[in-house]
Amino acid sequence: MIFAVISLSAIGIVSAIILFFVAQKFKVIEDPKIDSVEGVLPGANCGGCGYPGCRNFAEEIVKAGNMDGFYCPVGGNDVMSKVAGILGLEADMAEPQVAVVRCNGTRTNAPKKVEYDGAATCFFAHNLYSGESGCPYGCLGLDDCVVACNFDAIYMDEETGLPVVIEDKCVACGACVEACPRDIIELRNVGKKSKRIYVCCINEEKGGVARKNCSVACIGCGKCVKVCPFDAITLENNLAYIDFEKCKLCRKCVPVCPTDAIHEINFPLRKVKEDSSEKEVDKVVV
Amino acid sequence: MLKTFKLGGIHPEEIKLSSDQPIDVLPVPKKVFIPVSQNLGAPSKVLVKKGDIVKAGQLIAKGEAFISSNLHSSVSGTVMKVDKVIDTSGYKREAIVIDVDGDEWDNTIDRSEQIKRDCPLSAKEIIEKLKEMGIVGLGGATFPSHVKLMVPDGKKADLLIINGVECEPYLTSDHRVMMEKGEEIMIGTTILMKGLGVKKAIIGIENNKKDAITYLTDLADKFEGTKVQTLKVKYPQGGEKQLIKALTNREVPSGKLPIEVGCVVNNVGTALAVYEAVQKNKPLFERVVTVTGKSVNKPANFLVRVGTPISELIDQAGGLPQDTGKIISGGPMMGKALVSLDTPVVKGTSGILLMTDRESKRVVVQTCIRCGKCITVCPMGLEPYLLSNLIQHEELEDAEKEGIMDCMECGSCQYTCPSGRPLLDYIRVGKNRVGQMIRNRGKK
Description:
The complex is a heterodimer of chains A (286) and B (444).
Chain A: H1 2-25, H2 32-40, H3 54-64, H4 76-87, E1 97-101, H5 122-128, H6 144-148, E2 154-156, E3 163-165, H7 175-179, E4 185-189, E5 196-199, H8 207-213, H9 223-227, E6 233-236, E7 239-242, H10 253-256, E8 262-265, H11 278-283
Antiparallel strand pairs in A: 1-4, 2-3, 5-8, 6-7
Chain B: E1 23-25, E2 31-35, E3 45-46, E4 53-54, E5 59-62, E6 71-72, E7 77-86, E8 92-100, H1 123-132, H2 145-149, E9 159-164, H3 173-180, H4 182-196, E10 201-206, H5 210-220, E11 226-231, H6 240-248, E12 263-267, H7 268-280, E13 286-292, E14 300-305, H8 310-316, E15 324-329, E16 336-337, E17 351-356, H9 357-360, H10 373-377, H11 384-392, H12 396-401, H13 412-416, H14 423-443
Parallel strand pairs in B: 1-14, 9-10, 9-12, 10-11, 13-17
Antiparallel strand pairs in B: 2-8, 3-5, 4-7, 5-6, 7-8, 13-14, 15-16, 15-17
Helix pairs in contact in B: 1-4, 3-5, 4-7, 11-14
């Protein structure tokens, strides 16, 4: 009994001494800033910054010693200023962004022409067929973006069959953008008071062809381009695109769009003029 | 015991509804849409423009790459436009739209019924002729035939195989061609033998086409070096590698072409097209298409001009049945469901299959129960369940190692899967992506 206690204690002490010296010899000197930077990061490990996880982001930013190209979309400006504080740098204030679904091919706007019952993910459906409505650009509605979202910020609207982004939860990590095989989802600036104007269509077909499949497709008529006072709208491949950097949210393009493809979000209701149709009122999403 | 391949295979219900229907000539449609990409390789380069007047048989697009083929107008009329037209997958691809006016053929084409047996051309001239006439494999893969005949340096062909297997259920176009154009096929076979420089040809036919076997066996006696071999009915015996294995017991190595074991395989339809091209100077612009399905009024075999919208064929077969749930281009096993009736017939279209609502519904997808049936039936010895998993998780490198590129998309795995898993969907997409990866690797 006593022999056992003594021998085990001896082994313990000897091992401890060996370990102490080994630890001294192979000590990894790590910048303590890495730990503190990681401490202020949200810890979501979403990959939205472009690095595999928060720890990796912290290591890289400490190693780089500047803030260029580093941005945590989840934490936003708050976290980045804290990180900047730790590193003793100035934080670039990036415009907060949000994911925007650029397709309005709802069940009524773009009715089903065929039925797809193959492998049920957007990725496979996109590679095999053009989609149930016949629009080769439109949303396939098979949940890839919902699955990709780590923050429960996207859900499928059962009625329209389109994904809906919950603005408050969206951190603009870009996972859904990457998951969408058709590049329908785009990260856009949140804008003043969350007001946004965007073309809710990415169909590059000729107007008539696009309209055949979807009543709210952009037909590339160019009316919005002409009316825009800030040159924020460009027309390429039969598709208008609003540059969110240049857009001053004047809303002039919205009523001129003949197919209601331009959406305005979080704007107050327009004053209903006598000659304006009901349609316009409906369109305003709050 | 009849010959067949050993590994895997299934025996789906045959349902050859139209095997007794003689080939009908389909009236020339009012408008044709001729897709520019109608061969396995690079798309052809368009030679015509809007407003051009063309005759049937006139060259309208030229195959410039090594693996590419010429394209000829299938009708006479005016070129309306070169535009994007819907293809089998619903995406739009470039096509030449021609407004039909009368039916005037290029005057170099010999339209007489008389059969010309002797071919004075040399092997080189034959290959050149096939290239000029835009002949591609009519079995479905549309591999340019002249490329097939050009044996690479260091390889030697010793056997020509003519594929009359038609293992897909429902389809009967090859069967009818064999019955009605037997002699032409045999002459086409001898031309191919000459082009290839081989002395022997075997025509493989499955045992469910007894009349064709008897007919062609009698004919084969009159042509030196040709032989008809009866095969056991088994799917997918029409696959090149399976057919070679069944007939000669040679095995084509993974990733290699049949020439590696000295064989070249051509479809019976191709043999007929070769005959017409070489002896009658007629480019490939029409083919036999089966229109079939359990609810179709008059299942039929039509001789169709390339570019004819599928709706025309269905109208001629008695119209679209009320309960149609799915329209498939090709056979039920390998065919692709169509999204639009405006899709044109192309050189590779062997059949149009109309399935009823009930037949067309896929079963509910359940989890894999690891029963291994897909592995048992895979004729290439692959593990479809594993491949589909790898592709779902984007493990492309591993999928390549597991031999995904050897898959010929026969669909046996999906047919047999008790959990109704869409294995072929995954593998098809996977093949695409792995192929892309391999090509990119070559570029670096």
